[in-house]
């Protein structure tokens, strides 16, 4: 039994899911994988089901009906992971923009170095992004600067979706009170963990844009992040953050 579970939300990732799962299971540390598939019409879930026969007890699949949002996928995965007694709970994309080799660095930041939440950070040491157009790099970089300004957090990569949570962080946060469903979900979870006083460590990574499949980023997602952060900050003034 592994102490670590990697939650990977999928929607039309048939080009990537087999290779990603095999790569994770080839690492020297044993990780388990939970795929949360939102009814991918391309057959992503079918690929995972076949692989479950090969990786019995290590590969898990939760299927949902339709695209219900990134945030709700992770909330579903968090609750599943707590119920199944994992101590280290990871978030990772399926498209290899997050390098699976970095999972061990994120794990060690928590399990060895004592962090409660470790973040795969594109911006802790300069700008480490490959294959993004300059406009998107600038948008992402200054979005993090904007979030730091509004929230007061010192985290350099506030929108990163490559993370390791210790069990106690997920148990402490009221998951049903998390409001955002898109990429702003990543900011809200970090902000909430920070408000509770958990130790957060950024681990430098190199982010590489997807080679296969289609990006899920949209203008609406970006708008949610920009305008929702102020509301999130204001509402935090009226909440109690006690462990």
Automatic annotation (TrEMBL):
Keywords: Glycosyltransferase, Transferase. One of its GO terms (cellular component) is membrane. PANTHER family: DOLICHOL-PHOSPHATE MANNOSYLTRANSFERASE SUBUNIT 1 (PTHR43398:SF1). One of its GO terms (biological process) is glycolipid biosynthetic process. This is Polyprenol monophosphomannose synthase. It holds the Pfam family Glycos_transf_2. Gene3D superfamilies: Spore Coat Polysaccharide Biosynthesis Protein SpsA, Chain A (3.90.550.10). GO terms for molecular function: dolichyl-phosphate beta-D-mannosyltransferase activity. Residues 6-172 form the Glycosyltransferase 2-like domain. Belongs to the glycosyltransferase 2 family. It comes from Vicingus serpentipes. It comes from the Bacteria.
